[in-house]
């Protein structure tokens, strides 16, 4: 094996962070909340690069070739039910651009054996991309276990928690080193049918799947339903999420084809 050069040792991985469609000053725009970008830089020791979703699906493979990992963030938008074959009415807001590009980005990442991580909506996107389905919890028994009341402040929303049971010997168990965690919960959609190729790593109230990992993938595919980017400093399992993302992005690097490295 060739000797590793100082350039390779100093490589900081580049993590592509998917953007959401928003309206800014009356115009369509792309946005990512700072907390995701800051978590990639501070806790994964990686470089965040925003991936806009208002672009051709043909670009996905070219983008992935230049990234070391992909992060699918949470969002206030809901995945449209037609994306997973359901004719149930969609709950607003939706984000068609993210629905479209997110699916091709996930597939391109898996085809290129790049690590893919998901948070909240990101977990749901991965499940849908691999053939799974979702359901809306709004009118379900126990729905109030998964989201704070509508009139909660931002602080109260992200302080709203519930326990999850971690699957023994799962990916989550290996890096969180705990059988039970307390996680924040800010979601209305949830996995209904788990996609083939994914396994549950944790379950919460009402048996809702709270973390998943892919089986048989060349690079890690891992996602959680909660928000580890929200002030993780005092939660070891959330810091471990970011450390795992950073380690996965560095694995076998050697920078990704087409990536730039510092001298």
TrEMBL record:
<dbReference type="GO" id="GO:0033969">
    <property type="term" value="F:gamma-glutamyl-gamma-aminobutyrate hydrolase activity"/>
</dbReference>
<dbReference type="InterPro" id="IPR029062">
    <property type="entry name" value="Class_I_gatase-like"/>
</dbReference>
<dbReference type="GO" id="GO:0016740">
    <property type="term" value="F:transferase activity"/>
</dbReference>
<dbReference type="GO" id="GO:0006598">
    <property type="term" value="P:polyamine catabolic process"/>
</dbReference>
<dbReference type="InterPro" id="IPR044668">
    <property type="entry name" value="PuuD-like"/>
</dbReference>
<keyword id="KW-0315">Glutamine amidotransferase</keyword>
<protein>
    <submittedName>
        <fullName>Putative glutamine amidotransferase</fullName>
    </submittedName>
</protein>
<keyword id="KW-0808">Transferase</keyword>
<dbReference type="GO" id="GO:0005829">
    <property type="term" value="C:cytosol"/>
</dbReference>
<dbReference type="InterPro" id="IPR011697">
    <property type="entry name" value="Peptidase_C26"/>
</dbReference>
<dbReference type="Pfam" id="PF07722">
    <property type="entry name" value="Peptidase_C26"/>
</dbReference>
């Amino acid at each position: 094996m060739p000797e590793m050069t100082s350039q390779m040792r100093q490589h900081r991985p580049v993590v592509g962070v998917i953007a959401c469609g928003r309206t800014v000053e009356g115009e369509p725009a792309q946005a990512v909340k700072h907390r995701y970008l800051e978590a990639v830089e501070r806790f994964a020791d990686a470089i965040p690069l925003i991936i806009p979703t208002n672009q051709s699906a043909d670009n996905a493979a070219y983008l992935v070739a230049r990234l070391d990992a992909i992060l699918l963030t949470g969002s206030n938008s809901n995945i449209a039910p037609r994306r997973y074959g359901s004719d149930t009415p969609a709950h607003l807001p939706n984000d068609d651009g993210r629905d479209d590009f997110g699916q091709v980005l996930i597939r391109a990442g898996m085809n290129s054996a790049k690590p893919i991580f998901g948070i909240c909506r990101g977990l749901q996107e991965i499940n849908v991309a691999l053939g799974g389905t979702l359901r809306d919890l709004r009118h379900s028994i126990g729905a109030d276990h998964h989201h704070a009341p509508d009139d909660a402040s931002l602080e109260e929303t992200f302080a709203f928690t519930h326990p999850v049971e971690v699957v023994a010997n799962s990916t989550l168990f290996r890096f969180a080193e705990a059988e039970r965690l307390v996680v924040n919960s800010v979601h209305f959609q949830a996995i209904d049918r788990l996609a083939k190729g994914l396994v549950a790593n944790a379950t919460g109230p009402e048996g809702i799947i709270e973390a998943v990992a892919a089986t048989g993938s060349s690079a890690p595919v891992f996602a959680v339903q909660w928000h580890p980017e929200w002030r993780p400093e005092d939660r070891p399992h959330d810091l471990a999420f970011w450390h795992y993302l950073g380690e996965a992005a560095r694995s076998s690097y050697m920078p990704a084809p087409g990536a730039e490295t510092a001298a």
